[in-house]
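Newbie here. two chains, one complex. Structure please?
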Amino acid sequence: MKKIEIRDQPSLGVGKTLSLTLTGIRYRLFRSLVTVGVVAVAMAFLMNVLSESLVRGAVLRATTLRAAQLHQAYVWVTKLSDPGVLDSILTAMAAPRPEAVDEAVSMAKLPPEDGVFLESRCRQAAEYLRFFAALDYGARRQLTGKAEGTAIFDGLQSPAAQADFFGKAKEIRSLRLPGGADTFQKFLREWPGVKEKLERIRAARAAAIAQLQGSLRGRTVMEALAEADGAFGAAIRAAGFRFPEDVARTVAEQARQACDGQFLEAGLLRPAVRQAVAGRLDLTLNEVNPQVLWTFLRSRESAAWYLDRLKEADIPVAGLTPERLMALARVQTEEATLAQLVPLQADVEAGETGIQERMLWLILVSMVVCAVGIANAMLMSVTERFREIATLKCLGALDRTIMGMCVIEATILGVTGGAAGALAGTLLGLSRMSAAFGGIALSTMPIGALCLAMAGSILVGIALAAVAALYPSFKAARLAPMEAMRVE
Amino acid sequence: MNMTIAITSAKGRVIIRTVNLKKIYIKKDVITEALRGVDVEIFTGEFISLMGPSGSGKSTFFNMVGGLDSPTSGRVFIDEVDVAQLTAVELAFLRCRKIGYIFQSYNLIQYLTALENVTTPMAFAGVDPDEARTRGMELLTLVGLKERWTHRPIEMSGGQQQRVAIARSMANRPSLLLCDEPTANLDLKTGREILEILRMLNQERNMTILCATHDHRMLDICDRLIWIRDGRVERIARRDQVQIEVGSIGGEKA
């Protein structure tokens, strides 16, 4: 008989390891499916939270934008009828729209270099105002008394008031003035100058509005804005406002819609028309309101019918077609939808991900749940195979072969579970969101961000599964075979 | 130990030698001395029965010799190679090619077919798949399971599973076969068949076999018997010496 000589054992090839692992997974299909299921559920939870917050964020951004566009006519009505107060001018100047500053500076005939100065100081002032507004009531009361808005800066002009303010500010430990106390002191020194310039802007704006009064010729501002793309637009520009052509067109169109809308709603005031609508819709007279009317007018047939009723009541409907009525109805219903979406603001904060603190916390918790679930599933799937691992070691498997098998299995289960869970979670989130917000959730869907989040969470799932499987398999592989068998 | 020296076998050279082998298990302050110093020599071509009551340290000794567990102190030499000196990779080599294991509970890989179970050690040894297949079928034929090579362990009886396990243990033509109570889970008839296969391997292929057992039929086929009690070698005897005494000893031991 030949003498025993000991050499190094060769490693099992990757292909063989893979096929051995796959055979194992196939044999334990049910057990593997349960593991995949746990991973998938954990991942679905995570992806559901993530996708919902992403969609919410996108919807909110879209609606905010859309609402701003829809209300441009109203914004201009306000702008052209009221010069505003110091605070509103300051806020407008601090907004990231350079044309507002340009307009104000040129209107008040200030030197152009004041534009840069005013813009930066207004931003600073706006930041301080936000800071004071965010303070709790007690702290605000202590620091600034009853003053609100820019009056806070006015109240802090005297050295005594400043000393008092900074003394109290030091006492409140959690208080952190933006930029520090020195910056605020410097700002307070500059404030009278800024205020004086803002006052001049306000006066100039009041003068411009007075100048426009002549062009109104007895109409309301909204009615006049209906020809914002014509003579009235020129008058606005002549008064010194920045009123570019494209804005003028949008504003004019919206103003016309608003006027027509008011006109059509006013039709309901005629008893004959109201009676007819109530009869047609099978409602009592009291139940007929503009909201009902707009929903009714969405079809061409009913729009034509309503126009006929108006004609019968001797209301001049020249220039109005059923198509026009339908378009108006669409705009009106969209505005109603947008109004419903406003409460969203409480859930979502503007920002890249649109994820607020509460959401972040939820995501964090779901990550932990996900990690624990996956780790548990993988731990179980390895420890219940200690005997098999021990047997394989008796047959000459190397530690690294055993580890390889476990990691390959974990990765396969992680990929399958992660992908299935991420997909299910996203679909669930999307369907929930589209049920809540309608088509706007799908049309504004941030596909790129969603895909990124999915890929990210699948990767996290795989990594978690692999790490969770790594430790017990390392332990099993390093144990002497009989010790591993004894673990059971 | 004069007994060991006195009763040397006429067969080949020493293949297993243990020197003062001790194993102590410590679990939560409870110290169990499984082996308290065992010195044994086994020669090539021998068929050894390892006998002793439960808890005598039989299985522990078996595991030490097979390189499946590490001794607390003392040494195991397999063909004068100190097992404790081997690296993990060399140990894998030793388990893969030099020793075949047969367990009481068969320990087949549940998800592999009979043939795949037999060829797995060959895959670990780097044998060409085609050759492994041929050799695997030869071994299955040898144990009489040629027809059942596609069956998985759950589709086979205990005796058939143990036969697959024997074929698997022979996969890489080992020098030594270690059997841990191979017949304990089987009925009398199947147990006899398994013993017959082992005897055939020993006689026809000159395989060295170390067999831990309670089965007294083993007396008929083994060359020497080693009794272990309380972690020590109680007695070593050749078969012809035992035959006469079996009545008295059997009554006490059974």
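Moderator note: The longest strand of chain B covers residues 14-27. Confidence is low (pLDDT under 50) at residues 1-9, 244-254 of chain B. Thread marked as resolved.
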